[in-house]
């Protein structure tokens, strides 16, 4: 099914990657249009451990970052625990409980690794240990030390390991530069997670944590900081959105106190709007002249906020629509040709709304076969894919009613969001990376 691409999306696309590359790549966490949609992708509807598996390769270490795909290469990040220890730090099992989630400080050296695989075979082309260090803090058992997805402009690869550093490579594995942006003090030691966003010659990184917060823009060629703004926000993990609108390039950040828009070139705040709940994680989505932001921890909230305004527009009549039911905690929504699909909290309870009006199309609807999900849904060729944590993926028709097509099972846990490139679907499990394609 051919989708019309709005002009603002074309601006986003052409500013980031080569127009000649088409939609056969997945250059960042939420894909080429930052919406979770592959406009020309056509992956399979059905698969299993013995059907439509082009390749399956083991990935050592731990990481829940989404793989990205550029031409014939697949890139992903992982953190590998070694046997080298600092004996001055007690083993985690011997440390006293220090917070509600019982997250302990690691005492082992970890290798923070960048992997490049052959897209056709899954064979490793190159790997680099970006850095080796003992993490200054642990992470929630549902998180890890390599949860941010890399991004590329087709020439450079940007890899963000949070407190372990930011690293830039060429696509053949040569390290071009690196930056230490400091250690994050995440509330309850929940870990980091927001992915970097590339726009032209600028890289945007948001860090929202209980004891510190910032949005920072760096030069892609050198890693030099162009500007940085401190933020007064509690824990949030939402990856920002960058878009040209109303004569300015806006950096839109979702967080618990305010959704904010900054000028990409100057760092000046353009507008802000309150109304989301705590621990904001879903990525913003753009619909015409509005940005849709949502959260689903300790309450539910979604708002369609105008991109044309300035100043504080909290609780304003200018907000196009809002809702307070059934929004996601960890996963982001997928916006597909006027329909916004999202789950409730981390449960497999689905809703679909009209993205322009906020009018409910269907739901709450239980997705049969899935209990919980952390992965964000993706869409292509008239289909929407929901990946459950226990290995089940349910494929739906893009429709204003609930129309399941297929239910697919794999023998692995999946927390990472999928990627679609051409006729291939990439699923990263706890132990393996799958490339799914028609046999």
UniProtKB/TrEMBL annotation:
Residues 113-359 form the Pyrrolo-quinoline quinone repeat domain. The keyword Signal applies. Coiled coil: none annotated. Keywords: Signal. It comes from the Bacteria. It holds the Pfam family PQQ_2. Residues 1-22 form the signal peptide. This is Outer membrane biogenesis protein BamB. It comes from Stieleria bergensis. The lineage of its organism: Bacteria, Pseudomonadati, Planctomycetota, Planctomycetia, Pirellulales.
């Amino acid at each position: 099914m051919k989708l019309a691409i709005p002009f603002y999306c074309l601006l986003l696309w052409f500013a980031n990657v080569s127009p000649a590359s088409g939609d056969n790549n997945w250059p960042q966490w939420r894909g080429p249009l930052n919406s979770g949609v592959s406009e020309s992708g056509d992956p399979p509807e059905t698969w299993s451990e013995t059907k439509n598996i082009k390749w399956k390769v083991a990935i050592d270490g731990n990481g829940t970052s989404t793989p990205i795909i550029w031409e014939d290469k697949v890139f992903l990040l992982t953190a590998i625990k070694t046997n080298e220890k600092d004996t001055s730090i007690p083993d985690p099992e011997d440390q006293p409980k220090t917070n509600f989630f019982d997250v302990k400080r690691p005492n082992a050296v970890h290798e923070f690794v960048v992997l490049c695989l052959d897209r056709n075979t899954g064979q490793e082309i190159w790997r680099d240990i970006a850095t080796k260090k003992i993490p200054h803090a642990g992470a929630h058992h549902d998180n890890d030390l390599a949860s941010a997805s890399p991004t590329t402009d087709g020439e450079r690869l940007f890899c963000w390991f949070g407190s372990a550093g930011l690293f830039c490579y060429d696509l053949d594995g040569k390290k071009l530069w690196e930056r230490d942006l400091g250690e994050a003090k995440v509330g309850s030691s929940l870990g980091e997670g927001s992915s970097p966003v590339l726009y032209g010659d600028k890289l945007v990184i948001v860090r929202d944590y209980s004891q510190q917060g910032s949005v920072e823009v760096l030069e892609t060629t050198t890693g030099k900081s162009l500007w940085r703004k401190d933020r007064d926000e509690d824990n949030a993990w939402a990856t920002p959105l960058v878009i040209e609108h109303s004569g300015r390039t806006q950096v839109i950040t979702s967080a618990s106190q305010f959704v904010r828009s900054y000028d990409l070139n100057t760092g000046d705040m353009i507008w802000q709007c309150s109304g989301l709940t705590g621990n904001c994680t879903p990525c913003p989505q753009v619909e015409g002249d509005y940005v849709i932001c949502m959260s689903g921890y300790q309450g539910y909230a979604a708002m369609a906020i105008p991109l044309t305004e300035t100043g504080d527009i909290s609780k304003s009549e200018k907000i196009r629509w809002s809702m307070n039911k059934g929004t996601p905690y960890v996963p982001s929504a997928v916006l597909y040709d006027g329909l916004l699909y999202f789950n409730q909290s981390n449960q497999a309870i689905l809703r679909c709304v009209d993205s322009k009006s906020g009018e409910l199309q269907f739901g709450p609807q239980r997705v049969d076969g899935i209990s919980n999900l952390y992965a964000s849904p993706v869409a292509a060729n008239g289909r929407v894919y929901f990946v459950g944590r226990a290995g089940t993926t349910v494929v739906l028709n893009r429709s204003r009613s609930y129309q399941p097509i297929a239910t697919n099972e794999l023998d692995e846990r999946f927390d990472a969001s999928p990627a679609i490139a051409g006729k291939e679907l990439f699923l990263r499990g706890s132990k393996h990376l799958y490339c799914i394609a028609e046999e």
